[in-house]
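Think of the structure tokens as a kind of shorthand, similar to the way a musician reads notation: each symbol stands for something richer, in this case the local conformation of the backbone. In the example below we present two proteins back to back. Begin with the first one, reading the sequence and then the tokens, and try to describe in your own words what changes along the chain.
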Amino acid sequence: MGTLTIARQKKGWRDLLRAYCVEVNGEDVGKTRRGETFRVNLPAGSHSVCLKIDWCSSQTIEVDGDADTLLHCAPGGTALTALPDIMVFTDHYITLVRD
């Protein structure tokens, strides 16, 4: 069994007061707010991880449940780019990357 850790950066104004939903294999497993770190244990095997807010999301990252994984997330743009991001770039609204 491994641990998935998602560290949300404390950057920018966009989504300042909003939480990102953490989905593993399409199921909601928790939330992370600005500056917080979210942790969950994963069973062995491959898992898809994605963050969501309303109808927007991050890209999906595959992680191994047998290992500890650290991901970092942040808004995918600024408050000024929010309108085009929610209309066109909905699957990159949140940035999610491996450490």
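Once you have a description of the first chain, move to the second and do the same.
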Amino acid sequence: MFTKTEIILSFNATRELVFKAFTESEHLQNWWGPKGWAFDISEFEVREDGVLHYSQTSPDGNVMWVKFAYQEVKAPEKLVYTSFFSDEKGNIVRAPFNDNWPLEILNTFTFTEHEGKTVLTMIGTPVSPTEEEMKTYEESQEMVQAGFSGTFVQLAGYLANISEN
């Protein structure tokens, strides 16, 4: 069985603005990641073969590094990238919360506009997982959905408080 994470949400903003929220650091740093965690960008180049490398620091001081490797950037319609936990230098490392988490996840975000709102569809699938990694991913869907849902609630709040520049 092959599992994917799929989340579909609607935002009360143009797709150009929602796309910018994902692709411009001045926007992304205001909403991405777990609530209450510090978000620091080390490298950010949104283009084919570009990367986003960042750290997140929990309120109790634990630091996690994450890296995105962009494969497709089609403004304002689509973003495709692999994501993985990394060290400070950007090398792939095991997830800090589970040694059997897949090393890489392929993420596809599509942005469509409908009646002045943006519909965001996010699909995440493990890249070449072992059987054990796939089992862990399948068993963790509730955690994954909750994590992204919290992040996207922050995005909705952020979008409600800014105007298109």
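Compare your description with these statements about the second chain. The helical segments are 15-23, 25-28, 131-139, 141-160.
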